[in-house]
Amino acid sequence: MLKAVPLPNPCPTSTPAPTKSIPSYESYQCNIGEDFLRIARDQLREDDNIRTQALAQFREWIAKHPYIKKCRTDAVFLLRFLRTKKFSVPAACEMLEKYLTIRQLYPAWFQKLDIEDPAINEIISAGYLVPLLQRDSQGRKVILSCAGKFDPHRFTSAQMARVHSLVCEALMDDEESQISGYNHINDESGLAMAHVSLWSLTDIRNMMRCIQNSTPMRHKETHFINLPHYGNKLIEFMMTILNEKLKKRIVLHSSLDDLKRQIDPSILPKEYGGVVPLSEMIDKLKIHLRQKRHEILALDDLYIEISKTAANFGGNDDADMDTGVVGSFRKLEVD
Questions:
Q1: pLDDT confidence of 229, banded at 50, 70, 90?
Q2: DSSP character at residue 70
Q3: Most C-beta atoms within 10 A of its C-beta, which of 180, 198, 253, 324?
Q4: Counting Cβ atoms within 10 Å, is residue 50 exposed (0-12), middle (13-18) or buried (19+)?
Q5: Is 335 helix (H, G, I), strand (E, B) or coil?
Q6: 273: left (phi over 0), alpha (psi -120 to 50) or beta
Q7: How far is residue 24's CA from residue 116's CA, in Å, rounded to a whole number?
Q8: Could you count the other beta carbons within 10 Å of the beta carbon of residue 33?
Q9: pLDDT tens for residues 115-152?
Q10: Which long-range contacts (CB under 8 A, 24 or more apart) does 276-281 make?
């Protein structure tokens, strides 16, 4: 767990925080379409007054935080957390602490996110992970992953994680996506035991907890298609880690046609029955990543002082689970 820290209202503790001067900030300019503003009002309780007050409280908390030494305080960045937590400022404060902490605890997953890194560039060029160009019917950004396009014999789990982190960081400042959320489609055709073997179960557990507790994204739906039989064991294990809300948002499809009953086929890549070829989507993603490159790399400068106990951030209540669960995967490997 994170080390207890002094938090001013609205996140109070008994330990007083040192006095710091609070800087001035640029005023927020709202450039969101009316459809998304309606979603923000209906689902997040967001309006001009709530947004203004929450940003002011959040910034004051950061400025007085004794352990946060460097952090972005622009409105779009802070709104990632406020919108994910439906403008509960204490919950947004907690998520920001965890976000800053995991970046330092797991640098192999969350730092050096660079499209110019040869391995990352090659993985993205292969089409392993790509946002679709059009949103779904609920206005959500759709992210497609294709397991078969990731070569587990050439790349590591850390490189896989950094690709996911890079793509997510490139998307999270988009305010319409902050409001409407994200829809994930996972095509597991080509998933092999070599992919599964890249990850220890402890790493899977820690990554899943990072995703659900520390990543400021509204994960609305997660779809799986073409899942091999041994993939079911992996999903079962992941479900033991996720909270009830996210569990209910996972959908396993028997076929691509089954997925298309819930997702407009026209927004999918041409290879999946849509209009735009996957190669064009990849090219547009790489352009966007290069445009955001310096901004994303600058995230490595964010810094929070963490204690040794923060190494248990993922929790160690199931530290011995590898012994009990990995056997299932090993048995599948030889079946």
A1: confident
A2: E
A3: 180
A4: middle
A5: coil
A6: left
A7: 35
A8: 12
A9: 999 999 999 999 999 999 999 999 999 999 999 999 99
A10: 276/133, 278/127, 278/130, 279/127, 280/133, 281/130, 281/131, 281/132, 281/133
* One-character DSSP codes across 74-104: -HHHHHHHHHHTTT-HHHHHHHHHHHHHHHH
Angle at 223 between CA 220 and CA 226, to 5 degrees: 170
The reported pTM is: 0.86
Tokens of 240: 């033991």
H helix intervals, 186-320: 193-197, 201-214, 229-241, 244-247, 256-260, 278-291, 293-297
pLDDT tens-digit profile of 191-215? 999 999 999 989 999 999 999 999 9
How many CB atoms within 10 Å of residue 327? 10
Range list of H helices, 292-320? 293-297
- Mean pLDDT score of the chain: 87
Question: Phi and psi for 176 in degrees, rounded to 5?
Answer: -65, -35
β-bridge mates for residue 224, sequence order: 186, 252
Task: List the end-to-end C-alpha distance of the chain, in Å, as a whole number.
Answer: 39
**What percent of the chain lies above the pLDDT cut of 90?**
75
Please tell me the distance from the alpha carbon of residue 322 to that of residue 314, in angstroms, as a whole number: 15
Long-range contacts of 14-18 (CB under 8 A, 24+ apart): 17/64, 17/65, 17/66, 18/64, 18/66
DSSP secondary structure letter of residue 255 = S
Q: Are 22 and 58 in contact (CB under 8 A)?
A: no
Spatial CB neighbours of 26, under 8 Å, sequence gap ≥ 6: 74, 75
Q: Is the dihedral of CA 144, 151, 102, 213 positive or negative?
A: positive
Higher pLDDT, 13 or 281: 281
